[in-house]
């Protein structure tokens, strides 16, 4: 597989996930990007192996009377890609608030 | 707090529409993620935030079709290039539609209205008429009736218990059969005072026959259903939750019904049971051998054995009824059975309405399609030059066709999404959801139908112009675009408009007929003053009121107490209130006449009333006297009959003073004749009626107290409940209703149908007028030079207006002629829905034609007046 080229919005999305945004809409809020941009990036990066996603346990969610959510997290390749992107978009890191706990 | 269901469902539907673009393998997950995130946004943030977020769904759906750009390059010949081209066309189509907002918006709205209403109808019909009832193998359930000869034409009558018992023991076609009777129970175990609960007294096989069993506890057994068995009850899931706190140890507890302790033996599962409004079931505990074959009070249904057809069962029931006729000639002569599938019985009231309305929705959709075809045709002509240029600079025919087609597809998908919202908003308008339906009636199949309709309609009409354009010679097309309209195409558009007018006429005629039926029904003389009469239903339990005399005394006291309520001017009780669904009839003899061959020949509705009842209802006295307080048990037995009774059984009019007998050894003297009362159905004519004084014949436990109030603003509900509680704190008032509301309820389905047809009719007229306006405007535009020339050569403005209007009205005239023909031919389809008016009523047809003609004239006049303002000098200059 060729080395993925990370776009600016892509870097924002990786950044958001690395800082603890786990759902699509959460990433949107954090990165300030519309859903029509965020979701295709999430899907593409998942296929490329930069992100992986997991579905919440059905039982747990249903007990709370809500539908289950899909979580995203960075893979090792994603961390690496984020590192490369951070070098490329130097100002990028500073734009975001301090890391979420 | 969970998000508001309507908002969430609308957005979920919207996402569902877009998910069709997502590859099949990913679709379910895609949809789940979007819906889940939307749900959470609605919960945590605002509706607006959710709306803003789902805007990205289409883009995500489209993206999910493409392989990621950075992955391994696609092998040669892969469909990527095609997909890119498709995306390009898609973007172009959206842009092109946005450039023509009037066309796009009009087409969208019209398609959405047409598709939405048809899809809603489809959903309703599917869930109401086609889907199975909620019980196991419910298509084997059959309702069985016992009918007597005098019940002319009505073959859905209740059975006597011994007859039912004989059917059940002799049949070989049915797996199980059960009798049941609607009833109300006075429930006094709760902390919140006495309550009146709907329920049913049933045979012990009832739930087995129905195909459902208690979720907790046990079903009734044969030993529960014999005289003297300990009283047992099965309760609904809802009642268990509401009144017994969902307590799992409820089995074996006692609840007091009609003042008798009953042991709860079972709780039904959380699903619709039968009768739908019932919350409690108790065994009948009667011995069929002890019951009279003349007392027809029980509904019956059965479950067919596997593989037995309804026809076989009917034949068998007929044979049994025939045997019973020979065995019990006195009671059963002429009695016959009828049997219908349970589902058909439950949907009896709505089936015709649904099919009629589906037909109407189809017509509206056809009008919409016609109009869109018309618009597309005009559109295509306008775009000829653009397309010709594309072809000239090297676009292939297929690309041009694809371009126009994709535009139609975009229009189709968008309008079906809108149409689904229309469907969602209107689905319960036509027929309210039936009691056995739990989920939404909009499901994937409705969505599929909406999308299929949208694609079919808009692609069909998008394709024709596209093919024509792509086929033609490029230079021809360019030349053609700069010339005026070809006659053949104008002719095609004219035919389309004329057919729109024709279809609109059909709808308007239908709406007019229904409206006049509704007016006729509303004007039917009820025979009583419904405006200020109020009924309160009370069921006196046999435990506290065992004897008729107890019940009579109680009711007498209640009548006196209600007369003390300020504003109540008259009061009385009856056992059968008009329009409340209660009715009794009896056979009788007439003194000095031969007993008729068949008992049932002398049969009449009967009411047991207290003296104030006729006055409280406002029933007119025509001859003789009213029932009086002096008609006591010790006085001579009397009866008051209605004019229909007099006309039917005493055609000579000498009935005052004659005596009749209903009960074996007593004779009642006819002392008065009152007007006839409509009892259940406004369409049904008057029936013979007898009014017996309660003091002389005994009062049943189920009674209606009727009060006449001084003015219709007066609310006596609370006052009467208070009075009842003063006499008997454990006695609930089942319901308090105005007679007006009971009568209105019987008109509900006609009123609903009228409203729907009128709405469709209006829509049809508006769309047809729009189509006409479009065609005439276009024609005027094309003929501008000609008109300018005419004006320059001395034509007056009036002549020009005449010219244009004539052109338009020729189309309208042709449409009207065809439409009137179809309307007259199709009128009988409305059949039962009409009352007091012939289905081919010429006045309705003429007024519909006049209305349409007038609207059409307006639609033509606007472009005609514009034509007359053409400046000849200007026109000639551009020439």
Structure characterization notes:
The complex is a heterodimer of chains A (101) and B (879). Chain A has 101 residues and is mainly alpha-helical. Chain A has a single domain, classed as Arc Repressor Mutant, subunit A. Chain A has 6 helices and 2 strands, in the order H-H-H-E-H-E-H-H. A two-stranded antiparallel ribbon of chain A has the order 1-2. The longest helix of chain A is centred in the middle third of the chain and has 14 residues, at 35-48. Chain A starts with 7 loop residues before the first helix and ends in a 6-residue tail after the last helix. In chain B, helix 13 runs antiparallel to helix 18, helix 18 (487-522) packs across helix 27 and helix 25 packs across helix 28. Mean pLDDT of chain B is 83; it is low at 70-80 and 481-487. In chain B, strands 1, 2, 3, 4, 5, 6, 7, 8, 9, 10 and 11 form an 11-stranded mixed β-sheet that branches. In chain B, strands 14, 15, 16, 17, 18, 19, 20 and 21 form an 8-stranded mixed β-sheet that branches. In chain B, strands 13-22-12-23 form a 4-stranded antiparallel β-sheet. Chain B is 52% helix and 15% strand. Chain B is globular, with a radius of gyration of 35 Å. Among the domains of chain B are: 1-66; 149-334, no CATH class; 488-523 and 745-878, no CATH class; 533-711, no CATH class. Chain B contains 28 helices and 23 strands. Chain B is an alpha+beta fold and 879 residues long. At the A-B interface, helix 2 and helix 3 of A face helix 2 and helix 4 of B.
